[in-house]
């Protein structure tokens, strides 16, 4: 079967990853924000803590979360958030928090600084994977005895966080890939290319070459895995994730083996990626 020829209305059928189609990118952000908030509220009502692995991108859900949290007075005091990843300098240190590309600085600007203080995540419960202490995410999961949710975008090569697929010629079984925990690694050329297109006007040199990421090992421990595909260039990976081979070469396809994985996709990401010369500005 040529997965690129699956009809739009048949996408998701037969896949173990649930597909939630959203009319627009904005609709997708609201749906993700609402599910995140519902998970926190459910734990709050039971008097239980919430542990989540969260992204910096897509950033769209955060403004919606800020609005919902402040309006409905939902407390995050019992939440612990582990961010998925961060860029590093060539010598393996965090890029400066003031750098426009810094996820640490970004989370402060768009989320933590916007939440009413009496509702906010406590500063000591805001974590980023640390190149000097990569075991911390797993230690937190073991401490809480659970990981409630992980949500984030899917990369152009099917990655989740910065869990880049094995390079050509690299021997790596699915089991070995799923056992990769939080670590420092190079950002793939594909990821640097699409990120420079989105973030620095196509300047490939503007995107750092190294990163740290929470691993697939930790991600797979989440009760709920939520993936986001808001853009047209997501279309090729979407079909591989839902209907392609389960393979480390497309990391998010491995979530076909997870017990509760859902893909939120904007309608534009459902187009067929059958090759053609596309003419813009006719």
Average pLDDT taken over every residue? 95
The main sheet comes to:
7 strands, parallel
Fraction in helix: 25-40%
Total beta strand runs? 10
The DSSP helix count reads 8
Which strand order do you get reading across the main beta sheet?
A: 1-10-9-6-2-3-5
Report the C-alpha radius of gyration, rounded.
18 Å
Structural class: alpha/beta
Contiguous low-pLDDT stretches (5 residues minimum) are none
General form: globular
Could you state the order of secondary-structure elements as H and E? EHEHEEHEHEHEHEHEHE
End-to-end separation in angstroms reads: 34 Å
Oligomeric state: single chain
Beta percentage is: 15-25%
Quick rundown:
The chain is of the alpha/beta class. The chain has helices spanning 25-46, 60-72, 103-110, 136-144, 174-178, 189-199, 216-219, 235-243; strands spanning 18-22, 50-54, 79-83, 85-88, 126-127, 149-153, 183-186, 210-213, 224-229, 261-266. Helix 1 packs across helix 2.
General description of the model:
It is a single chain. This protein has 282 residues and is an alpha/beta fold. 29% of the residues lie in helices and 16% in strands. The protein has 8 helices and 10 strands. It has helices spanning 25-46, 60-72, 103-110, 136-144, 174-178, 189-199, 216-219, 235-243; strands at residues 18-22, 50-54, 79-83, 85-88, 126-127, 149-153, 183-186, 210-213, 224-229, 261-266. The strands form 2 sheets. A 7-stranded parallel β-sheet has the order 1-10-9-6-2-3-5, sandwiched between helices. The chain has a 3-stranded antiparallel β-sheet with strand order 4-8-7, with no helix packed on it. β2, α2 (60-72) and β3 (79-83) form a beta-alpha-beta unit. α1 (25-46) packs across α2.
């Amino acid at each position: 079967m040529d997965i690129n020829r699956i009809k739009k209305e048949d996408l998701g059928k037969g896949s173990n990853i649930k597909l939630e189609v959203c009319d627009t990118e904005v609709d997708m952000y609201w749906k993700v924000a609402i599910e995140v908030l519902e998970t926190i509220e459910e734990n709050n009502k039971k008097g239980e803590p919430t542990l989540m692995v969260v992204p910096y991108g897509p950033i769209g859900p955060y403004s919606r979360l800020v609005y919902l949290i402040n309006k409905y007075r939902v407390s995050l005091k019992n939440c612990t958030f582990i961010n998925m990843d961060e860029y590093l300098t060539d010598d393996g240190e965090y890029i400066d928090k003031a750098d426009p590309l810094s996820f640490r600085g970004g989370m402060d600007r768009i989320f933590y600084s916007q939440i009413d203080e009496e509702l906010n995540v406590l500063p000591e419960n805001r974590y980023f994977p640390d190149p000097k202490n990569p075991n911390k995410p797993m230690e937190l999961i073991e401490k809480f005895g659970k990981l409630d949710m992980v949500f984030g975008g899917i990369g152009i090569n099917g990655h989740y966080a910065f869990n880049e697929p094995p390079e050509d010629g690299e021997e790596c079984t699915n089991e070995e890939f799923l056992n990769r925990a939080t670590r420092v690694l190079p950002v793939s050329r594909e990821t640097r290319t699409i990120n420079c297109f989105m973030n620095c006007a196509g300047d490939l040199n503007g995107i750092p070459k190294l990163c740290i990421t929470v691993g697939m090992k930790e991600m797979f421990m989440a009760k709920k895995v939520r993936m986001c595909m808001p853009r047209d260039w997501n279309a090729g990976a979407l079909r591989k994730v839902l209907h392609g081979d389960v393979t480390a070469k497309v990391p998010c396809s491995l979530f076909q083996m997870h017990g509760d994985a859902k893909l939120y996709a904007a309608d534009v990401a459902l187009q067929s990626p059958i090759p053609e010369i596309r003419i813009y500005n006719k």
